[in-house]
Amino acid sequence: MLDPLDPVVLARAQFAFTVSFHFIFPAFSIGLASYLTVLEALWLKTGKSLYLDLFKYWVKIFAVAFGMGVVSGIVMSYQFGTNWSVYSQRAGPIIGPLMAYEVLTAFFLEAGFLGVMLFGMTKVGKSLHFFATSMVALGTLISATWIISANSWMQTPVGFVVGATGQFEPAGSWWAIVFNPSFPYRLVHTVIAAYLTTALTVGGVGAWHLLSDSANPHARTMFSMAMWMAALVAPLQILAGDTQGLNTLEYQPLKVLAMEGDYEPSPDGAPLILFGLPSGADDSVHDRLEIPKVGSLILRHDLHAPLPGLKDFPRDKWPPVPVVFWSFRIMVGLGLTIFGLGLWSLVARACRRLYDWPWLHRAAVLMGPAGFCAVIAGWVTTEVGRQPYTVYGQLLTADSHSPLAAPAVATSLVVFVVVYFTVFGAGTGYLLKMMGRPPTPGEDELPHVPHHAAGITPAHGIKPTVAP
Amino acid sequence: MNHIDLPLIWAAIIAFAVFAYVLMDGFDLGIGILFPVFAVGEERDQAMNSIAPVWDGNETWLVLGGGGLLAAFPLAYAIILPATYPLMIAMLLGLVFRGVAFEFRWRDPAHRVYWDAAFTLGSLTATIAQGITLGAVLQGIRVADNAYAGGWLDWLSPFSLLTGASLVLGYALLGASWLIWKTEGAAQAHARRMAFVLGIATLIAMAAVSAATPFLHYDYWQRWFSLPGVFLTAQIPLLVLITAAVFFWGLRRGSERLPFLMVLALFFLNFLGLGVSVYPYLVPRTVTIWDAAAPPQSQQFMLIGTAVIFPVIIGYTAWAYWVFRGKAGAHGYH
């Protein structure tokens, strides 16, 4: 059905590829910026150099991840115009101001204070430096707020009229647009996801170093902080996900039905399909393992509540069911596993063996990247679940694209793939290398930065022969 | 707010953002372009140090330019970007390489030579793409039914290649004169020599672009040479000559800041000249500022925030520059 040389398919692949790659970095830096703020606050409050060491250790990692987030993010602000100009022209009056506010209130804030946060510890006072760190963290959260608002409006559009040229024109209050019906749920779910993603990475790194030296105080602190997050925040995330699901059922029932694999209507309680093979050939889920009625219990909080099926709706309004079905299961499965890790750590803590159970540490290392996978799976669920629309119920994806030339889209897609894997592959390699080295007392501010009477240089290179 | 011409205000804001981008990322990209001629070691490190704390903020103006155009003039955004498709992609990928090179070259000394090359090629690609885009917009874009109606290589012409090459020279000049300000010793002397040569080259390129522009369309010709407007428009080339004279005088006198400030003035005059040619169009001779404007509710909503936030942004950006004031040095700030 999908012609791989259809320029619209290529344009969709390009957007999916660039945005998925991009989101990996903010998912990490939103959480890490807040973590750095906490570490610096703890250092200022307790005076313990251990927290300063951890701050300096993670700020180097933050610098690389943030840089990759910035450059991959700039690509996104132009992707709308190159491949999706009809969408831009029509939805621009609503989406544009939300994104412009993101730039004005968040990006400049982050960029303005980032230099001071990374390089300025000896150039400004302690409290001013802490202020800079807090502003960077605040910037990441403001950024998330605006971009989630824009995305949510595409999912649950309100507060507009369609003008003569087909443009979506704001009508009434902008607050209705910004706080559109799905926005609060998505914002909470996404920010918690970013925090968990970072916690798992920090926990994985801590666990890795505990495996070689379980007495390392830095590794212990990292691991303990991260496991508290997993134990306390993962259940909150499950609740947040559940309420978002209820909201989606209200506004985008087809998406939820695709997630659940409910092709047929269920007049007396829908089952919960744990696993199965959804098939587009005969519109059913094969080899299914299901619990009767629990689907309705989750979605309607009532075992016998009726739920519609996909077949109640015209077929050309269905999202691609197998993709949504699977990505949803990956997300939920990882979420439950993260919660399980948190519970395990609580048991270990209760037994006073948090730093002594190698299998717990091995599991935490294995789960280090789990947050990233869950976040991407979640976005695939919600974005593919929005199809066949860009603006849900209003503007079809098939009508949103630019006057595209297949050779241009195909070439640029290939170049994006090659460049992203090269550049961000190398970057991820550097991140892993930095994480593979344990934090030490008296951690350097940045590698290759010699201490000097005049302070610390931002990026001075000493001779290449000196090992990092 | 009916008596306020919102589209005109927004055109001014976006022009300001684009100009701020051209100036601030211009010297960053210029340093990237000149990087291979710097000596490996101290000179390169000084050059890199002088922009490391600020490049990210500088690049944010580009996001504001793109995002602001989408928000305030969605029609112009939806026409110009498809018309310059390969250029936009090339610019973005160039900026990807340029941006990561700042971090990566310090993490990986064994491959530093590759990241330095990526820094230069990325900067050069982004600059050429921006310069060609300028030429492509000036020479005109084929539009039908509120959408781009040309092919994917329409932007390619001798004129657009000329503007592409000119911007490379211009950014390199900005970079060299920035280094005169921010470095010292041998690096500064080198920057001074480069600025002299690049100053001459940039003036020649400016003259060539200025001479070619009126021949693109009769409208441009009229705008510049019809009476009595010519008495006003003629002031721009006159000011360019004066600025250039002060630039070379400052260079000879050994002044550290004057050359950079004069190059900024040159860019401003160029930008002004561009405005004279193009106004009131966003897509020359087809889509005006008012044709492309988003509904007033959208422009008004953004204007309120912008009026409050712009001064704050300019304030803390200035503060960030102030923290890292003085010579960059290879051994720390003084």
Structure description:
The complex is a heterodimer of chains A (468) and B (334). Chain A is mainly α and 468 residues long. Chain A has one domain (10-275, 289-456). Chain A has 13 helices and 8 strands. Chain A has helices at residues 7-46, 49-83, 85-119, 126-155, 174-178, 183-212, 217-251, 253-260, 294-300, 321-350, 358-366, 370-384, 406-436; strands at 160-162, 168-170, 272-279, 284-291, 389-391, 395-396, 451-452, 455-456. In chain A, strand 5 (389-391) and strand 6 form a beta hairpin. In chain A, helix 1 crosses helix 6 and helix 7 packs across helix 8 (253-260). The radius of gyration of chain A is 24 Å and the shape is globular. By secondary structure, chain B is mainly alpha-helical. Chain B has one domain (6-323). Chain B contains 14 helices and 4 strands. In chain B, the strands form 2 sheets. A two-stranded antiparallel ribbon of chain B has the order 1-2. In chain B, strands 3-4 form a two-stranded antiparallel sheet. In chain B, strand 1 (143-144) and strand 2 form a beta hairpin. The mean pLDDT of chain B is 86. The chains are: A mainly alpha (468), B mainly alpha (334). At the A-B interface, helix 2, helix 3, helix 13 and strand 8 of A face helix 2, helix 3, helix 4, helix 5 and strand 2 of B.
Please write the string of helix (H) and strand (E) elements of chain A. HHHHEEHHHHEEHHHHEEHEE
Query: Tally the helices of chain B: what do you get?
Result: 14
| Total beta-strand segments of chain A | 8
Average of per-residue pLDDT values of chain A:
86
Rg over CA atoms of chain A? 24 Å
Cα distance spanning the termini of chain A:
52 Å
Order of helices and strands of chain B: HHHHHHEEHHHHHHEEHH
In round numbers, the mean pLDDT of chain B is: 86
Secondary-structure content class of chain A: mainly alpha
Q: Could you say how many structural domains of chain B there are in total?
A: 1
- The strands making up the biggest β-sheet of chain A line up spatially as 1-2
